[in-house]
Description:
By secondary structure, the chain is mainly alpha-helical. It has three helices and no strands. Helix 1 crosses helix 3 (40-71) and helix 2 (27-38) packs antiparallel against helix 3 (40-71). The radius of gyration is 15 Å and the shape is elongated. The termini are far apart.
Amino acid sequence: MDLLEQVADALAKDVLEAERLTGNEELVVEIKKTVGSSSTTLEEAFMTAIRIRRAEARGRDLLKQLIKSEMSV
Length: 73
């Protein structure tokens, strides 16, 4: 993983955690705008990391549900 991906992923992880703790769903948008005003490259990598982490969370949630339903059969 290169520096851009490392920085973007670390920021995405922190922002998603802050969003979870505060319930403020606008945090991603606010950070995206701020980052994008300085670096569109980092903005794109940040949003990619956000999408990847959200997709992973949805996949893990579904997996838990499927395992739970299989065990109750």
